[in-house]
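FAQ: What does the model actually see?

It sees only this:
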Amino acid sequence: MPIPFDKILDTLNSTILCLDTDQRVAYINSTGEILFDASASFLLGKSFSQLLSAVETSTISSNLKDFNQQHQTITEHEARLTLANGRSISVDYSIYPLENDNQETFTLLEIRPLERQVEIARDQQSHLQKQASQLFARGVAHEIKNPLGGIRGAAQLLEQEIPQSKLKEYTDVIISEVDRLQVLIDNMLGPVTTPVKKWVNILEILEHIRKLLQTAEPDRFVFRRDYDPSIPEIQADRGLLIQALLNIALNAIQALERKGNITFKTRIGRQVTIGKVKHPLVIQIDIIDNGKGISSEIAETIFLPMVTDRAEGTGLGLPIAQEIISQHGGIIKCQSTPSDTTFSVILPLEPA
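And it is asked to produce this:
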């Protein structure tokens, strides 16, 4: 049985390019498509220099020229690479000689973006911290929940023994506040149901949420949609997914100080690592607002329970959303500036 070398190369975190004698792209793996933000069919046949910035030169260009003369392996660490679209990244790269069965000479180029490795490590660390915080919050919630029932029961018994109706106002306050705390504790415990996954259309879910929000607050914001119509259905719990995405969207609306914009955007991602698992295909759902942004004091902790910068907020919407998305094997990321914030929900499209 032949070995599927192309599929093996597509699973790598490194960009793999094969250049012919004219330094034109003869092969590129799927990780390379992500790096250069273009399809293989578009990149094949292009001169490698066309993929890089014409303004900022890189050592990789000069090393390729030296390699063509000497045909010896060249490796460089922490090099700066500026792409044709202006994006500049730090990479390790290696250049190797390669020959096929017909004695034709090629250049094999391996590029390893350092930012991606740091991002994966940071995501793993963040995931562990969130898990630990959620377990702690649930433990505290369980410890508080039992006494609350006793307080409520005692207040009800006391109410029956008090002859003056005026004093019953105080027991009513106790009971109503206990009930309010009970709701808060239930929210801290997060979703109690196990996801019942069925085939769902993510665009239909987003449109359902859009209609809910526009009906509730039609004058608060302008909705913008940037959907990829080719996104297939995924296995998910529709109700829980609506709850998670609605929590994020409400958070975005609350960030608007005046009438602003909310954007729903969907895209397909390739070779994305979630936790320690690399997925060949994922769906990325971006919920973008042009509000005030997230304060730097809480930017690193917004997915932890009870963290909020709003006086009226509970700080539970995002942790609940993160828990639901985690139950679906996904992750939520956030990027924020003083002028806009993007929450990205990433869900596996197929088994890793």
